[in-house]
Amino acid sequence: MYPDHDQHGPATMIFIGPTGGVKPDLDGLFPDSSDTVLRQVCCSGDKPTLIEEVVALIGEEDEAHALLAQKAALMVDEMLENALYAAPRAADGSPLFPKREPRTLLPEEQITVRYRYDGSHLFLEVRDSWGSLTQGQVFSYLAVNTREAEPDPDRTGRGLFFMWRLFDHLYVRIYPGRETVVGGSLLLQPVAR
Amino acid sequence: MEQQFSYQLVQEGQLETALLAGTIDSRAETAFSDLQKKVRGPALVLDFAAVGRINSMGIALVLRFLKQLTKEQGVQVQVRGLNQINAMLFKMSGVFLMAKEVR
């Protein structure tokens, strides 16, 4: 955990991955350069467009690129589903929007996607303006999906579990009630035969 | 352009086979429930060769579908045609405990 203090007050930073290599410096992952892409999401209909954009950036010229593109598409899908449907909560903690219904963002709501591809690493990040995910939920989702061998269709946190397993590095930064940032990196790797 | 989930139930010799296609996410719920009602058994092959992305909601639907078929209807299910990422997701979420993979 990397406690972080800025103008928003204390935040939770959970960084999961090998030490060395990529550091949990979020702005370091996305330098202010032309290859960092920043997108504001306005509705659920933006999801397929963003997925296509990231897949096109990676290309699918061989098996390794195709696999990276498939992983990236899944990660963008999971991250945006979380931001669009899991994050928005009413005061009593119930979800504000049903998962199958297309939706437009509320006037004060913000979802931002950042990504960057350097030819071997894809960096992806989604932030929402809810900050409803908790540190306890993150660890509980990962623990229950790791521990339970019995396949249970109704198990929660499967999306985050997939992110943890597929990202080479995963970070979650939470400003309670203000913002959740989920991001990670995927490495272009030779396909195992 | 993202392809919505669809299926085709065909007979391959003695084997009942469901040819699945498109993206499997929360929008595939009705189609899976419809397919479940049509399966006669006692054995079924699920062909994922034309399936693209399966997200966590899609995995939940696949697990629910398999649970109903195998545990409640006694149907023996096999899966085939998985791409690398979908095979990884199936392994992580225990799908292969309910349906063996065949080539």
Provide the β-strand percentage band of chain B: 25-35%
The CATH architecture assignment of chain B turns out to be 2-Layer Sandwich
CATH topology of chain B: Transcription Regulator spoIIAA
- What overall geometry of chain A do the principal axes of the alpha carbons give? globular
What is the CA-atom radius of gyration of chain B, in angstroms?
12 Å
Shape of chain B: globular
Please, could you describe this protein's structure?
Chain A has helices spanning 26-29, 46-58, 63-86, 135-147, 158-166, and strands at residues 4-6, 9-16, 36-41, 111-117, 121-128, 169-175, 179-187. Chain A has 193 residues and is α+β, with helices and mostly antiparallel strands. In chain A, helix 2 (46-58) packs antiparallel against helix 3. Chain A contains 5 helices and 7 strands; from the N terminus they run E-E-H-E-H-H-E-E-H-H-E-E. Chain A is 33% helix and 25% strand. Chain B has 103 residues and is α/β, with parallel strands linked by helices. Chain B has a single domain, classed as STAS domain (Transcription Regulator spoIIAA, 2-Layer Sandwich), CATH 3.30.750.24. Chain B is 36% helix and 35% strand. Chain B contains 3 helices and 5 strands, in the order ββαβαβαβ. Chain B has helices at 29-38, 56-72, 84-93; strands at 6-12, 15-24, 43-54, 76-80, 100-101. In chain B, strands 1-2-3-4-5 form a 5-stranded mixed β-sheet, with helices on one face. In chain B, helix 3 links the parallel strand 4 and strand 5 (100-101). In chain B, helix 1 runs parallel beside helix 2. Chain B is globular and about 35 Å long. The chains are: A alpha+beta (193), B alpha/beta (103). The interface between A and B is medium-sized, with 28 and 29 residues.
Tell me briefly what this model is.
Chain A is α+β, with helices and mostly antiparallel strands. Chain A is 33% helix and 25% strand.
